Structures are given as C-alpha cells and as structure tokens.
Amino acid sequence: MSAHSENEHVIGYMPYITIWLTLIGLTILTVSISLFDFGTLTIIVAMIIAIIKSIFVINIFMHIKYDSKVFLGFIIAALVILLVCLVFTATDVFFR
Amino acid sequence: MSSNAELELTQNEMQEVEASHHEHTEHVHRDDFASKMGMWLFLLTELLLFGGLFILYMAYRFQYSHDFHIAAKELNVGVGTLNTIILLTSSLSMALSIIALQKGKKNLSINLLWSTVGLAGFFMVNKFFEWSAKFAHGLYPGSAHLLEKEKGEIIFYGMYFTMTGLHGLHVLIGMALILVVIYRIKSGTINADKYIVMENSGLYWHLVDLIWIFLFPLFYLIH
Q1: Contact check, Cβ <8 Å, A20/B91
Q2: Residues B9 and B107 occupy one common structural domain
Q3: Tell me: the pLDDT tens digits for A38-61?
Q4: Shared domain check, B62 and B170
Q5: Are B113 and A79 in contact (CB under 8 A)?
Q6: Which residue of A86, B34, B61, B140 sits 20 to 30 Å from the alpha carbon of B188, by its own alpha carbon?
Q7: Which of A6, A51, A73 has the alpha carbon at shortest distance from B218?
Q8: What is the interface size between A and B, counted as CB pairs within 8 Å?
Q9: Alpha-carbon distance B65 to B59, whole Å?
C-alpha cells in the first residue's frame, strides 16, 4: 500500500474527456488541412499535429505528467536515440 | 507444566515472527513502481521497433515521393479517420476504467473495459474490410497487378501492409490483455488497492493508439 500511495494520483474523469475532445478536434484539423495542397509543408504540419497529439496522450492518458520523472527521462533517452538514427539516416538519404 | 507453557509461548512468538516475516516478503514482492518501470522499458523497445520502420518510411518516401503520392490515393481517408477516432475513444475508455476502479466502481470499470475491447474489435473489422478491398483490387504483397506498378508504389504497399499489419497485431495483443484484466477484476485479483497489471495493460493500449497517431497521417493523408 505504501509503495502505491507515493506515486498514486487519482484524478477525476473530466481531464480525460477534455483531452479526448482535443484529440478528436486535432484529428479533424489534420484531415481538413490534408485536403489542401501546401506541397512539402503538408507533411510538416501533419507531423507537428501528430506530435502535439502524442504529447497529450503520453502526458495525460499515460500519466507521465503525474508519475515519477524517471519515466520521463526514459522516454527522452529513447527519443534521443531515435532522433540520432533519424538525423544520420536523413543526412545520408537527403544529401547523397 | 511451566516448561510446556513456555514452549507454547515461544511457539506463539515464532508464529508471530513468521507471520510478520511473511507479510514483509509479500510487501517486497509487490513493487508497483518497478512493475511500471519494467513496462516502460518494454514500451520503449516497441517505440524503437516502430521508430526503425518510420525511418525506413522516411528514406523511401524521400526517394519515391511521386509514387508514394499516387499509391496513397488508393487508401480510404474516411475509414482511416474513423479508425483514428475509434482508437482515441478506446484509449479514453481504458483510462476512465482505471479511475472507476480506483473509486471502487467495479461494474463501471468492467463495462468501460468491455467498450475498449468492443472498439478495438470495431477497428479490426474496419481493417479487415480495408485490406479485403485492397486484395480484391489485386493489391497485396507479391501480386501480379502490384508488380506491374512503379517501384515506389510497390514499396509504399510493402510498408503499408507491414506497418499496419504489425500495428494490427498489437491491437489483437492489447485486446487479449484487456480480456485478462476483465477476468482478473471479476475474480478480485485486480482491485481498488492493487491494479498495477491493469495500469500496465492500459499503458500498452495507449502505445497502440500512439503509433496509430503517426501511421494515419503518413499513409492516409498524403494527397
């Protein structure tokens, strides 16, 4: 029980419903934007919206905002590894 | 007589010590923080698995951007959008079911979990019809019709089937996990004081949602 209460953070139903509505709104937004052709900007905007959506999911649904900061550190470490792979691959592919 | 009484006392004491020792070990064996940490480490390996595929997608999309645009026109944006909304809603019902259990509302929690499973099933049914329609048009890996197309289009469909297929597999695993959680709530091994298995299954489910958030615009929204 003691192990539990220290990282337990019971929040109400409402924050989740608000986030869900925001996520649905962002989905509709990204689909509407895709109807117009902005060239390469289209993919950039779509990715920015996807990143915003994933931040909401990770922080609220996956509780990272309320949990120990160790988990946040884990995620950042994994993302840095992924980013390094991405940047090196991108420089190779784009400037070959 | 007196020695007997003494012996009894020591036995009682021993039992007490044993009992407290037992309690102690039980406490050590239950480390919710470590459980969650293990789950997160696993989820990060999943992130890198899909991350590698996303990097491959980026490289091919750069190389064959024209073919990718043509191939993506075959995908149904409506079904993709519907599936996105279904998964987001299933994530909501999963999160709410944990809150319900924490508040001691067992039946509400179970019903919310059933809706999560139901929505996941709905997602898979949509996926089934989507893939069937592609197969009916002769679009499946290695089909004669697909092999006649441009190289970039073949790669697009290769990536589409691999990534949405792998994601679909995760949806099925997530459904199985949630069914186990429902069973364990009913049997009482998951309850308002002890629900780490449910939380970890929830984390897995949200990861499935998270991957779809990126798959959807990358495959469906390139027009």
Answers
A1: yes
A2: no
A3: 777 888 999 999 999 999 999 999
A4: yes
A5: no
A6: B34
A7: A51
A8: 125
A9: 10
Give residue B98's identity as a one-letter amino acid code: I
Residues B58 and B148 in one domain: yes
- Report whether B153 contacts B67 (CB < 8 A): yes
**pTM for this model (two decimals):** 0.86
The residue among A73, A71, A45 whose CA lies nearest residue B206 is A71
Counted domains in chain A:
2
- Whether A59 and A78 share a structural domain: no
What is the CATH classification number for the domain harbouring B195? 1.20.120.80
A71/B31 touch (CB, cutoff 8 Å), yes or no: no
Angle between helices B77-102 and A14-34 (to 10 degrees): 170
Same domain, B22 and B118: no
Reading the block at residue B5, the tokens are: 């009484």
Interface predicted TM-score (ipTM): 0.88
Tell me: the pLDDT tens digits for A57-76?
A: 999 999 999 989 999 999 99
Residues 22..81 of A with a Cβ closer than 8 Å to B: which?
A: 23-24, 27-28, 30-31, 34-35, 37, 42-43, 46-47, 49-50, 53-54, 57-58, 60-63, 67-68, 70-71, 74-75, 77-79, 81
Distance CA B56, CA B79 (A): 25
